[in-house]
């Protein structure tokens, strides 16, 4: 069978990683591809919006049940036939959260899940606040051929992306996955794009696409759906389709050049100064516009 394209999408918690992953899965499916999404976050909520807001039992849940595990116990149908899997996490206070990824991938291989469903695209949705232990498996073991990160112009999102770049660089020489681009999320102002573009320039990376913040996403997720399903004719839905097409056509795989901690701090402070100057200039313009000049009669 043709080899599936395995893509890992990383990003810090709350950055929109799972929203992006689910909408991309829906977009790939909408383009006629067979898709599988594997949630690698211990919260096990990666695939909720592909299933009407409903959660599914995770691989670790199935293993804890101590019964004989069948494929249907861990692989569930989502929107447009997308196969949904959640790795899951340990019981609270017990074990390593990343262990679920290792266990899940081992079990999926044992059960010949990929041979059974023959997906064209497999998306691994991975928590990217730290790139260690099980969370590094898609990179370290070469499970994914291409890695993307979802990042905004906020410093902590950029900080997490920079750490991801360090992880990719560390494992690159031992067969690890390579980087393919930044998915710039919440891009509603030109200055936000400027910050991401400059970060990409300094780390010798590329930007795969820009995704603005949209109320269509909010409305869709309140219904437990992706934008592709809830608002298929919306501008935001077409944007996700364009991003999906771009990723399909993107064969770039390379090692990033992450900034060292001190260099990242200097870079961030320079942008802080730029933002302050821009705000002062805007205030001056507003003051000038609101100033009324009265000429003598």
UniProtKB/TrEMBL annotation:
Protein name: Nitrogenase iron protein
Sites where the protein binds [4Fe-4S] cluster: 96, 132
PANTHER family: LIGHT-INDEPENDENT PROTOCHLOROPHYLLIDE REDUCTASE IRON-SULFUR ATP-BINDING PROTEIN
Keywords assigned by UniProt, alphabetized: 4Fe-4S, ADP-ribosylation, ATP-binding, Iron, Iron-sulfur, Metal-binding, Nitrogen fixation, Nucleotide-binding, Oxidoreductase
EC number(s) recorded for this UniProt protein: 1.18.6.1
Binding site for ATP: 11-18
Enzyme class: oxidoreductase
Self-association and partners: Homodimer.
Keyword Endoplasmic reticulum set for record: no
Organism of origin: Methanolobus chelungpuianus
CC cofactor note: Binds 1 [4Fe-4S] cluster per dimer.
UniProt cofactor(s): [4Fe-4S] cluster
Family statement: Belongs to the NifH/BchL/ChlL family.
PTM notes: The reversible ADP-ribosylation of Arg inactivates the nitrogenase reductase and regulates nitrogenase activity.
Molecular function terms, GO-annotated: 4 iron, 4 sulfur cluster binding; ATP binding; metal ion binding; nitrogenase activity
Function of the molecule: The key enzymatic reactions in nitrogen fixation are catalyzed by the nitrogenase complex, which has 2 components: the iron protein and the molybdenum-iron protein.
Catalytic activity field: N2 + 8 reduced [2Fe-2S]-[ferredoxin] + 16 ATP + 16 H2O = H2 + 8 oxidized [2Fe-2S]-[ferredoxin] + 2 NH4(+) + 16 ADP + 16 phosphate + 6 H(+)
Organism lineage string: Archaea, Methanobacteriati, Methanobacteriota, Stenosarchaea group, Methanomicrobia
